[in-house]
Specification:
The structure is a single chain. The protein is of the alpha+beta class. Helix content is 31%, strand content 31%. Among the domains are: 82-141, Herpes Virus-1; 342-421, Signal recognition particle alu RNA binding heterodimer, srp9/1 (2-Layer Sandwich), CATH 3.30.720; 467-560, 3-Layer(aba) Sandwich (Rossmann fold). The strands form eight sheets. Strands 3-10-11-21-16-15-14-12-13 form a nine-stranded mixed beta sheet. The longest helix has 21 residues, at 35-55. It is globular and about 100 Å long.
């Protein structure tokens, strides 16, 4: 059995993961988190919040998963959020074209139909299900579509990312943060993508968990105020210029132009520190810059945090993107709502500009109920938009032309205190399910117990381990079990997750705790009755030492940083 299969088997056996809808045959792309898995996932999320909400001071918001269609038309997802699909001519099974190609070991340098068709034909790739030939590749949008309401309903989609909620709420968030940049908003929740042929367990799902941060910067100043604290953090970087991994500090990467700005460099470093904290192996972590034809439609630059997994190779677990002003500009244009920020001057300035004054009587006669929207648009129009015959406007997605007889244009002097601009966005986007699996993969090992039997040890970092302490009575007699139960109650009261176990030999109990990643185990034995001490065993070193019962809670709280 390979490691990937072993991890999934152990995960099901020990309550980490269950295939969703299993009693009805299951559906690909969905997993349930069991008691151990839900706890591990929550602790990973807690560490993410510790870094981004507590550490960075960002504001966490929560937005609906069901989103009106116009949001994703404006964001570009309706047009751009696609993958190329090929279908078997014989059995009609659909596959992602790039996955089929990459599974043969080939590297795709251009993600377009012509390249996909050519590579599949030249490599003579056949259907994995029946061996049939494939039809030509074609794009398919990956969003789940739905309706809002009944009767005259509204088209909508389940969100493929949480990011849009932060962009739509920008004006409210800007006021919340006292109209000062940079500031960050975060959201942790479910995303939905109607994947074509989801495989590889948690790596590619149709419903999944995301943790995203949108940090808004002045485009003229993408320096991070705390970059000095991160400049010496080392990471393995794979630039798209050389495609070769190189280990260096983020300070050096910035000075050499490998990473474009301080903000990107800072969040690469922060991501590296977060992953080390939750137990991802730094030797199996790298940051790869996207190829130019690989960039998302909104990205100015993007670096993927990739983890090496034994069976699957290098897998993206986080994307750190410079989204420029794309999102706010798109929503501002589509909605007509001002999503700009103010860059304040050191002192007020007097400026001269061309002001447009609408003639409301004439506007009302021509545009009727839309006259108010036209008036508002005319008053905010830039001088360069004024043509010799009139002004072209876009209102509610429709282009209209306003003849020069419907307004007056004149020079005016104004005192201004700053200038408005569209903020740029740096986005670290974390795939929680992929990170969850990576933590398990990097923690997984095989160990022999005291009887020489081989068993699984999950060397989870204590901060994310679902159970921190296993508590065993040596025997269920002479009050040893009662003492063990009292210790469990005291540790739980102290905020330490623990589990009582009196079934089987001590060796087998240790093995069960090692398999779910428990860092420490306590054994209550007959010496406990004499001196009020217990044996504390360390999962990784197997070291055992005697500790007074009253010292247990303070000791574990100190180890866990509580």
């Amino acid at each position: 059995m390979d490691k990937y299969a072993e991890i999934l088997a152990m995960a099901k056996r020990r309550g980490f993961l269950y295939p969703s809808f299993e009693i009805y045959g299951g559906v690909a792309g969905f997993y349930d988190y069991g008691p151990m898995g839900a706890a591990l996932k929550r602790k990973i999320e807690d560490q993410w919040r510790k870094f981004y909400v507590l550490g960075e001071g960002f504001g966490e918001i929560m937005c609906p998963a069901v989103t009106p269609e116009e949001v994703f038309i404006a964001s570009g997802h309706v047009k751009e959020f696609t993958d190329f699909v090929v279908e078997c001519k014989k059995c009609q099974t659909a596959f992602r074209a790039d996955h089929l190609i990459e599974e043969t070991g080939l590297k795709i340098h251009q993600h377009n139909k012509e390249t996909m068709d050519k590579m599949i034909a030249e490599a003579k790739i056949k259907c994995p299900q029946c061996g049939g030939e494939f039809a030509e590749a074609h794009p398919v949008n990956l969003m789940f579509n739905t309706k809002i309401g009944v009767g005259k309903n509204k088209n909508a989609y389940l969100r493929p990312e949480t990011a849009q909620g932060m962009f739509l709420n920008f004006s409210s968030l800007y006021r919340h943060f006292r109209e000062r940049l940079p500031f960050g908003a975060v959201q942790l929740g479910r995303g939905y993508r109607n994947e074509i042929s989801p495989r590889q367990g948690l790596i590619r799902q149709r419903e999944f968990w995301m943790a995203e941060a949108e940090i808004f910067f002045d485009p003229e100043n993408k320096k991070h105020p705390r970059f000095a604290q991160m400049k010496d953090v080392k990471a393995t970087l794979v630039p798209n210029t050389t495609r070769e991994p190189v280990e260096m500090t983020l300070g050096d990467a910035l000075s050499k132009g490998i990473v474009k700005n301080e903000a990107l460099a800072y969040y690469i470093a922060l991501t590296s520190k977060l992953f080390t904290t939750i137990g991802i192996d730094p030797a199996r972590l790298r940051f790869r810059q996207h190829e130019h034809d690989e960039m998302a439609h909104y990205a100015n630059d993007c670096w993927d945090a990739e983890a090496f997994l034994d069976k699957l190779g290098w897998v993206e677990i986080t994307g750190i993107a410079d989204r420029s002003a794309y999102d706010l500009s798109s929503h501002m244009k589509a909605s007509g709502v001002d999503l700009s920020a103010m860059r304040k001057y050191d002192a007020p300035r007097t400026v001269e500009r061309i002001a447009v004054k609408p003639k409301m009587k004439e506007l009302g006669q021509k545009f009727k109920k839309d006259a108010g929207d036209v008036k508002k648009a005319l008053e905010s129009v830039d001088a360069c938009a004024i043509g010799p015959e009139g002004i072209e406007l876009e209102i509610n997605g429709n282009k209209i032309f306003v003849e020069k007889e419907l307004y007056e244009a004149a020079k005016v002097q104004e005192t201004v205190y700053g200038e408005r601009f569209i903020p740029h966005v740096i986005e670290p986007s974390y795939g929680i399910d992929r990170i969850f699996y990576t933590v398990m993969d990097h923690a997984f090992s095989r160990t022999k117990n005291e009887e020489g039997e081989e068993y699984t040890t999950l060397r989870l970092a204590p901060v994310v381990a679902p159970i921190k302490v296993g508590i065993f009575p040596l025997m269920c007699k002479d009050g040893l079990d009662k003492i063990a139960e009292e210790i469990e109650a005291k540790l739980r009261t102290a905020g330490i997750e623990c589990q009582y176990d009196d079934s089987g030999s001590i060796g087998r109990r240790y093995a069960r705790m090692d398999e779910i990643g428990t860092p420490w185990c306590i054994t209550v034995d007959f010496d406990t009755l004499k001196d009020n001490t217990v044996t504390v065993r360390d999962r990784d070193t197997k070291e055992q030492k005697r500790v007074k019962i009253e010292a247990l809670a303070p000791m574990f709280r100190e180890k866990l940083g509580l």
